[in-house]
Design brief:
- This protein has 280 residues and is an alpha+beta fold.
- The protein has a single domain (3-274), classed as Arylamine N-acetyltransferase fold (2-Layer Sandwich).
- Helix content is 30%, strand content 26%.
- It is built from 9 helices and 13 strands.
- The protein has helices at 3-10, 20-33, 39-42, 51-60, 67-81, 197-209, 214-217, 253-264, 270-274, and strands at residues 36-37, 84-92, 104-113, 116-120, 132-133, 138-141, 147-152, 163-168, 185-190, 220-225, 228-233, 236-241, 244-249.
- It has an 8-stranded antiparallel β-sheet. A 5-stranded antiparallel β-sheet has the order 1-10-11-12-13.
- Strand 3 (104-113) and strand 4 (116-120) form a beta hairpin.
- Helix 4 crosses helix 5.
- It starts with a helix and ends in a 6-residue tail after the last helix.
- 42% of the residues are buried.
Amino acid sequence: MDLSAYLARLGLDVLPAATADGVASLQSAHRAAIGFENLDVRLGRGIRIDTESVHDKLVSRRRGGYCFEQNRLYAEALRLLGVEARPLLARVRLGMAPGVTPPRTHVCLLLTLEQRPWIADAGFGGSNLPPLPLLHGAKANTSDGARHRLLRVGGSGDLDGEWRLERAGPAQATDGRAADHLDWQVQYTFDLAHVAPDDLEQANHWTSTRPGTRFTTLHVVSIPIEDGFATMTDRELTIYRVSGAERRTIATAAEYATVLRDVFRIELSEDEAARLPLFA
């Protein structure tokens, strides 16, 4: 991993300190600089999650990615910082009907920081949520007006998860999966079981190839912004700020590529945009 190139992509001069505040600043910079997206899935390209591949895509080629890519890159940076990080697999429940048990298609990170465990995540397409100590009732507010909390809800191996991350806030400050009400909603559930590299490969393969899912049927792009959240699902762009929301429909591949660069900090050529199912 080219640390100097990664820091330049994030707009940082130096690697922050290996403290809770330092890790939070690194994660926030990562989230604000590298957009969330699934466009290679829609272009029929495989998603590789080894360090060299994600560094080339997200840093060198200034693309974005989804959780398996984002958190692999972030975990490598944390290790260079001297922070122990290991992956956990989670079930995304935002927008899911009650009683549905989704597969483990999200990866987050368990950190050892200041001699205690923390949950960190640079790869969820949502609020710029800082790392949270792994404590029942840990809470954080984000600049998009949302509240977040972490709850201990079950035992190891429970299908509903050992831990639950919840969100309460405006639905407009999401990628469209949240319900309209402002009450607590489950974002994802997870347990602390060790995850092998092939577990990640398997989950990534399912996520990028399973017919009829969100990532294989839609074009999904998002990024947290200073006082809100920007998202683009297919051609529909929403830029939400606490003061209000702007919406518009993207008409052409050229406009799409420009919005990716200017709003989401993602470089995709006009020719590549034109090959997306949206425009092909």
